[in-house]
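In the design runs reported in the main text, the only information available to the sequence generator was the tokenized backbone. The following block is the verbatim input for one such run; it is reproduced so that readers can re-run the procedure and compare outputs position by position.
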């Protein structure tokens, strides 16, 4: 693969299906008026190809500063129709729950930004193309005012450079809620705390935009991972698979503990877990966010984000994004 893998971008625990269909005891109110029983099922989620997470990663860009110079990137997402990339981070000079959505080029140059007050942490979010506009899906109405604050609802709003978000809110009254969008299969995954455990629900994006979260394509608890101290850093979906990123930042570049995991959303089972060495030479490399993109030439890629510094004493933070592009199936 070439060093820059996106030259064409500017041109364009439950086991078996029977258990997924079984009823469970507790109903979960979704705040928007819909009701979802605590049941895992995936009757309308066909098996899809997947990204081989064991293959090496290629650079999209490294060491790019976003609008808020003193905060690392968090989640990021692509508008696959209008060929746009958005990255979220905390705002400079605030208590920690105020976020900034950056629009950046595929070479990492800042193109625009939008601020959201009292939103949450920005671990993951989604983008919905509507004509020539990009609508952002992300957490809002944080449960606190520090870096530990997390969203209690999902907001949908049009990205307008320098504008004030005009939000429509969904799933109000949730706890620790985030989302991710699948630009290939036009779906949205919602991750939130239900009964003290993190669960994922997958919905057709068009139904979610209309406020209908009543019949998810899949609903399953977050599976346990093999390492003892997992720092959750992001997720995304592609077809019938969920991908997660975990790990922490280290001053020693050789101390690599960042992992990518592939989970079958039809069963909720971990299918593959692999360490990633993408950007291993970065200073204080910390995993931050995941996203899926399909190029104008039809190649599907899984992207991983990492924050970094120029030195341990530098207050500035930098964004770095890498991709994997080997499909199986």
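Verbatim output:
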């Amino acid at each position: 693969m070439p060093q820059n893998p996106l030259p064409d971008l500017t041109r364009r625990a439950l086991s078996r299906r029977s258990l997924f269909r079984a009823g469970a005891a507790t109903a979960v109110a979704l705040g928007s008026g819909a009701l979802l029983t605590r049941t895992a099922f995936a009757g309308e989620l066909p098996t899809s190809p997947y990204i081989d997470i064991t293959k090496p990663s290629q650079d999209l860009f490294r060491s790019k500063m976003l609008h808020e110079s003193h905060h690392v990137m968090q989640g990021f997402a692509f508008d696959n129709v209008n060929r746009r990339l958005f990255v979220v981070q905390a705002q400079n000079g605030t208590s920690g729950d105020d976020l900034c959505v950056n629009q950046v080029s595929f070479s990492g140059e800042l193109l625009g930004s939008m601020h959201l007050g009292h939103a949450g942490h920005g671990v993951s979010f989604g983008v919905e193309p509507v004509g020539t506009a990009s609508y952002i899906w992300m957490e809002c109405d944080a449960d606190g005012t520090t870096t530990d604050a997390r969203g209690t609802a999902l907001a949908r709003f049009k990205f307008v450079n320098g504008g004030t978000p005009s939000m429509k809110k969904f799933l109000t009254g949730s706890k620790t809620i985030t989302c991710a969008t699948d630009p290939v299969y036009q779906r949205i995954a919602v991750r939130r705390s239900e009964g003290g455990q993190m669960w994922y629900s997958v919905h057709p994006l068009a139904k979610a935009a209309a406020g209908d979260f009543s019949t998810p394509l899949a609903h399953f608890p977050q599976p346990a991972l093999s390492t003892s101290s997992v720092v959750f850093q992001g997720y995304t979906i592609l077809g019938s698979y969920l991908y997660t990123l975990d790990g922490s930042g280290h001053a020693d570049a050789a101390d690599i503990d960042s992992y990518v995991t592939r989970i079958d959303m039809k069963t909720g089972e971990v299918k593959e877990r692999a360490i990633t060495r993408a950007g291993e030479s970065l200073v204080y490399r910390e995993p931050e966010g995941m996203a899926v993109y399909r190029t104008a030439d039809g190649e599907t890629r899984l992207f991983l984000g990492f924050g970094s510094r120029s030195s341990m004493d530098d207050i500035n933070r930098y964004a770095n994004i890498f991709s994997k592009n080997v499909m199986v199936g």
